[in-house]
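ok trying again, last paste got cut off:
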Amino acid sequence: QVQLVESGGGLVQLGGSLRLSCAASGRAFRSYNMGWFRQAAGKEREFVAAISWIGDSTYYADSVKGRFTISRDNAKNTLYLQMNSLKPEDTAVYYCAAAGGRGLLMVSTTYDYWGQGTQVTVSS
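nice, full thing came through this time. structure:
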């Protein structure tokens, strides 16, 4: 079992940057593929980025490609999301998630464990 805790959210101006972190408990973190999703008010949860268990493959939603970078440090049991050139449409609650099995990493149902989320607000 994995417990996930996000941090690093906050209020930032248009064009600013934030780095989200997701601290995982449990010995099996390095065996999980990991992802970031977000949910804006009144909208469905959507895929943002994902990374393979060893960190050699990354995937991004078209809306964040070139602006966001997902990474992980398996020695620290931590997942990151570096967000640059932020836009008001990036405003959402951001969730990290862990997937223990196979499946499309862009699909939320692939994931077994979820964090509680961290709010990111981008002002114009």
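cool. Residues 48 and 62 are 9 Å apart (CA to CA). The mean pLDDT is 96.
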